[in-house]
């Protein structure tokens, strides 16, 4: 992007007769000033002046991974150029840039061809010069509505896959996403290298309360879901930071066994969730969907635990609750959670 004098001024050099239109120092300075005043400078300025590889390299030097977004259609969902017809070239380019994760959307692409297209991308990424995590937007919302999803195929093609429409920063949406996961029994498809993706986190974006955000984060941890922060980290509050850096809750999410947890019991808006961990312990989530503070109990019998006594550790406070016989009970705030780890004594 830039400016060239030729189309309007040609080779005009007669500054005596045409001082305003001749190719001269004054003209170029005036054009530069006009570009700034017109706002063209900001449209011309490249968003990545040193290239995307420079950004990826910088992120890698900070000990982080670099992900990128693209669409398998001719356009992205927001109307920018997609990858259709340039799949192999784009995969090669992404590898050269140092991309670690590709989030591939499916806008402006035929729904009935999604399986073949995402399979093609999976094969191209598998043959790339560097490993890249494949984040899919397949199955589509139409597939989900019709409940016609070939989940085994999805899990074999994608490393993570969306199974709901875009998340919203509101409590009602969190409930819908979680209920869909349970209704469709999606946990059976999750394993290391293949994860259900209920979408990015809304923690810290302002649409929910502190307790609701803790519930949101805890549920994603129990579901072995990707924990992709979606807030402005530069300006986040202390409360938001404490949620996004909750080490023992994150440890459940990242447990190497890779087994997705799920709902053990639900009654009158009070739920108990469990997730088996690699060290023979279990994470337990006591979740209060109601609007009043309520005690919730989990028993060792319903968890399938043989021992009458179990150690309980609170994962949010990072403190030991003690040893309990047969059951554990805790008061849970409205729309809140208590998340513990239950281990053999």
Automatic annotation (TrEMBL):
Superkingdom of source: Eukaryota
Keywords: Disulfide bond, Glycosidase, Hydrolase, Signal
Top EC category: hydrolase
Domain annotation Alpha galactosidase C-terminal: ranges: 268-342
Catalytic activity, reaction form: Hydrolysis of terminal, non-reducing alpha-D-galactose residues in alpha-D-galactosides, including galactose oligosaccharides, galactomannans and galactolipids
GO cellular component, as recorded: cytoplasm
Matching SUPFAM superfamilies: (Trans)glycosidases, Glycosyl hydrolase domain
GO molecular function, one term: alpha-galactosidase activity
InterPro entries tied to this protein: Aldolase_TIM, GH, Glyco_hydro_27, Glyco_hydro_b, Melibiase_C
Name of the protein described by the UniProt record: Alpha-galactosidase
EC number: 3.2.1.22
Entries under PANTHER family matching the protein: ALPHA-GALACTOSIDASE, ALPHA-GALACTOSIDASE/ALPHA-N-ACETYLGALACTOSAMINIDASE
Family note: Belongs to the glycosyl hydrolase 27 family.
One of the GO biological process terms: oligosaccharide metabolic process
Presence of the UniProt keyword Amino-acid biosynthesis in the record: no
Source species of the chain: Acanthamoeba castellanii (strain ATCC 30010 / Neff)
